[in-house]
Hints:
The complex is a heterotrimer. Chain A is mostly helical.
Amino acid sequence: MKILRLYIKELRENYNWMLFSLLAVIAFDIFLLVRIPSMQKGSATALSLLTFVVLLVLMFVKGYRIIKREWDWNTKEFLLSLPLNGFEIGLAKTLELITEATLYTLVATGLFLLILSRDLNGIKHNFALPLFLIVFSYFVFTGVYAISIETFSLTLRKWRKTIGFIVFVILTYGLAKLTNLLKPVMGKLPSFEVTIEYMGQITSQHINMGSFILPLIYTVLLYICLSLLIDKKMEV
Amino acid sequence: MTLIQFKKFDESKPIYLQVMEAIKKAIIRGDLKPGDKIPSVRELAQELRINPNTVQKAYQELEREGITFTRRGQGNFVTEDQDKITSLKQEILEKIVRDFINELDSVNLNLEDIMDKIKEYMENEGHSSRKFR
Amino acid sequence: MKAIVVENLGKRFGTLWAVRDLTFYIDEGKILGICGPNGSGKSTLLKILAGLLRPTRGMVKIYGENPGKHTKRVVSYMSEIDYLYPWMKAGEILDFAASFYEDWDEQRRKDLVNFLKIEEDKKIRELSRGMRGRLKIALALSRRAKIYLLDEPLSGIDPSSRAKILDALVREYRGQEESMIISTHLVREAEPLFEEVIFLKEGEIILRGDADELRKSHGKSITEIFLEYFI
């Protein structure tokens, strides 16, 4: 299966970087875990949240690199001479990104929950699942968003960085506006009922499923766009 | 394929003609005898590092001239027709002489000087084993 | 059906026309040499045929189809530059390519790797220039493709590697079914392979013909004719 073969190649290409970042997150979280006793209550949890931010930025950089690298190494000529259309190439790269996003989500969220339970002793909650889903969807969306922007700017001959940046700003603004517009629609979707019990206090929240479904919908739309760009506009 | 003795071909002349000539000379020399198989297109192309289609063209011309014939599935062979080979000898000989005389004309030398020079050269350079009158 | 038909092909980059108004065709089973100095449009032409660039105007047909995913199945393209993944081993890039093409010939691959003395266990970034060039040829020729597009297969390569590459080309080329386009500015070494020749200057065809016919009519080698036109 050609897409599979390309996907495996993408994995191998990113393997070192992926391993390194996972180990870094694990090391950091383990460090926090160990230091919980000597830290103020809640600090470890807050710091662990930092890893999510770092990983989010990382996903953006990865998405950007995944396609830019083919240009820097001139391997774009090899890639585009393969008998694949834009959708197939786009899929292989997107799936690789999703694979990494999954790993990051599992590791970062899992360790975060562990730290939370040690830090705030006795806390009870049921937000694990929604957390995983939301973090996952944001990681994936960010990565594919970056691929799309970079793919677009690589179809330009001149002023790539400038036009790319402008498109990025406009698109982000556009997506934000669109999200606002879709709020009522998303509201119709079911919600998670999240309850947190700590030190005798109970709080309840409704987390709408739209908060992870929408990013995933955007991801699919972006995938279609970047595939069309590779298929119809990309040149070597 | 040293039988064919193709030292270096002259790129300013059609290559397929040179291939034909080399084979004709090999036949006249006796290195390729009547009925012998000549190298396959691929073999010769690889040996000479030229396009196999060029060799193919040469072989087709040779066959058209009756110098060689094809046995289906087996390759190309030298004709067994002695008359053909004799007239081939004549043809090549004429070409050599014609080229030679043209060279002489271009420097305006006379025949006697030429004959003496040839004798001298042959003896000195050890070609005296050849018959020469 | 003609292997390649090009009509009024033009390709513009910004304001520069790399190729302007090219018209020619190639019959199946021929080796065509495209000769011209750097910047004459050879690479651009080959990339368009390979489907890596889109024409600005004009028409290109590979066995009657526009260049795209389907023509890439039968076209084997070799780029002039280093375009292979540097982190892969030589053997890995061959395995990788093999999985994408139905016309991949594993026996041919083995023969070529042996013949060209390619060290399959070395990473591509560690290979010498000559070996990289030979690897590219092995990659391109390990397929039973219908059309081979070789962009400067001899350039920047040491003489012994060049000789080996020429030998490999002659060895692997199967006339009738396979057409080949070789673009080069090193005309002298490659000219014995050409059946047809096109001279390209600043994106235009300034000479075209059968190689042997040109030799006969000009009384010169293709190289000498080339020098005449380009000095």
